[in-house]
Design a protein that fits this description.
272 residues, alpha/beta, Rossmann fold, 2 domains, six-stranded parallel beta sheet, four-stranded parallel beta sheet, 19% strand, binds D-glutamic acid
Length: 272
């Protein structure tokens, strides 16, 4: 049994979609959440730059006593998971990867869609997921530049966000996809809009529940789980405006909570 917290991070509010699934699955665990809003969006940046940010964040979260780190960002996972595992051997990391496998298992039309950031599609991690799980089906890759910023601006269901999504989703619908993978942790925030646009015949897949099961398994196997009677809690930091972050938490249906300011100085992140 281990009462230390679980570290979790994203470029902004996207990782909150993973955090809330984790809190439901593991109510006895404490979490330290960092949203790197000052550097958001990660998607248009180079993988090397996102790797540097991820390394700084992981150092800070480990410095705060995290027993395990969940990279609740597909872009950061794609950029940094392999090198973090090299830099911190034996330290437990859980990263996001696009849920291509369940989409392939679901499809009857033989064509599935994936939406994610530009950086995620450029990564070896993504190529390896497609290589492993999608030999027999067509996988359509659609980057969504600008969508993360729309979501961070609270434009969850505005005409502009709808028009952007329509432009990306319609060509995939014309090619008869029957599964759509949300390959960025921000996208579940606009899931209702996405579901309305793709209609009932396309299954929309969010990997967060699978990630929660993986975290639980890892905690149990390695003796890192908190005692069953422990009380869960979350501490939040952002490198952006803490007040704006707290407001966005409410906008996505979470309870408003205190948010602290984390600050970057010469590649070092301080979480007070
Ligand atoms: N939530 C991040 C992801 O899963 C968004 C990346 C971004 O900031 O562009 O990829």
């Amino acid at each position: 049994m281990d009462v230390r917290p679980i570290g979790i991070f994203d470029s902004g509010i996207g990782g909150l979609t993973v955090l809330r699934t984790l809190e439901e699955a593991l109510p006895q665990e404490r979490f330290l959440y960092f949203g790197d809003t000052a550097h958001m969006p990660y998607g248009p940046r180079s993988l090397a730059e996102v790797r540097e940010f991820s390394l700084g964040i992981v150092r800070a979260l480990i410095g705060k006593g995290s027993k395990l780190i969940v990279i609740a960002c597909n872009t950061a996972s794609a950029a940094a998971l392999a090198s973090l595992r090299d830099s911190f051997p034996r330290y437990p990391f859980v990263g996001m990867e696009p849920a291509v496998k369940p989409a392939v298992e679901h499809t009857r039309t033989g064509t599935v869609g994936v939406i994610a950031t530009v950086a995620t599609f450029q990564s070896e991690l993504y190529a390896s997921v497609v290589e492993r799980f999608a030999k027999e089906v067509d996988v359509l890759h659609q980057p969504c530049p600008g969508l993360v910023k729309q979501i961070e601006a609270g434009e969850f269901d505005t005409p502009k966000t709808e028009a952007m999504l329509r432009g990306w989703l319609e060509p995939m619908l014309e090619r008869n996809i029957d599964a759509l993978v949300l390959g960025c942790t921000h996208y579940p925030i606009v899931r209702p809009l996405i579901e309305r646009l793709v209609g009932p015949d396309v299954r929309v897949i969010d990997p967060a529940p699978a990630i929660a099961r993986q975290v639980k398994r890892l905690l149990d196997e390695s003796g890192l789980a908190a005692p069953p009677d422990a009380k869960g809690a979350v501490t939040y930091w952002t490198s952006g405006d803490p007040d704006a972050f707290a407001t966005m938490m409410e906008r996505i249906g979470m309870a408003r909570a205190p948010v602290r300011a984390g600050s970057w100085t010469a590649g070092e992140l301080t979480l007070p």
